[in-house]
Amino acid sequence: MADLMVFIHFVALAMGGAASIGLLVVGLTNAKVPPEHRPSVGRVALTLRTVGKTGMALLLLTGIIMATAGGVWGDASPLFWVKLVAVAALIVGIVMGIKAGDQAMKGDPEAAKRAMMIAKINLGLLAVILACAVVAFD
Ligand code: HEM
User: Fold this and answer.
1) Is the distance from the beta carbon of residue 99 to the nearest atom of ligand 1 less than 6 Å?
2) Which stretches of the chain are DSSP H helices?
3) If you average pLDDT over every residue of the chain, what do you get?
4) Which residue's alpha carbon is at the smallest distance from atom 8 of ligand 1?
């Protein structure tokens, strides 16, 4: 059971990471294609969002199950708590990225720049979470 949870945690991480990088690639591509092609390219972002949201939901679910079953809560490394703060920041970042992405898809160029910046910050947060997880569960 514990191994299954770790397995799902890693599959979900792959989904979240792939979606984060994919969304950045969609944003970079949309900045280069002619305006009339942007809605079609943008549609790819909608599918990537679903993949990313599913990955995040599975990370939260399996993470909470593992932390509760493994008794991590009372006895966690400080880096585990740093990881959770970064997870909370990432969730805020994802919500902000979705809002900016929606405005960008309606043709707002400032929102498109904001969405790109948020996507880069979110990738940075993902890297912080990974580093904390690896060291915390060494
Ligand atoms: C974006 C969200 C998350 C990412 C990217 C992530 C990533 C990881 C990674 C890479 C590991 C493996 C570390 C190692 O074995 O060296 C791990 C383990 C773990 N994570 Fe997460 N995690 C996330 C969210 C969460 C949350 C929200 C919780 C708990 C509330 C959590 C609890 C755990 C626990 C308990 C382990 C240890 C599993 C074990 O080896 O027994 N994670 N996580």
Assistant:
1) no
2) 2-32, 38-69, 78-105, 109-136
3) 93
4) 133
- The separation between the first and the last C-alpha atoms of the chain, rounded to the nearest angstrom, is 20
Identify the CATH class of 2-136. Answer: mainly alpha
Is any ligand 1 atom within 6 A of the Cβ of residue 12? no
- For residue 21, give the amino acid letter: I
Q: What is the pLDDT of residues 58-98, one digit of tens each?
A: 999 999 999 998 877 878 889 999 999 999 999 999 999 99
Radius of gyration of the chain from its Cα atoms, rounded to whole angstroms: 17
Place of tokens 């299954």: 4
Report the nearest-CA residue for atom 14 of ligand 1.
134
116 by Cβ neighbours in 10 Å (0-12 / 13-18 / 19+) ranks as: buried
Structural domain spans, the chain: 2-136
Q: What pLDDT shows up at residue 14?
A: 98
**Which pLDDT value is given to residue 2?**
86
Name which residue sits closest to atom 35 of ligand 1, judged by CA. Answer: 67
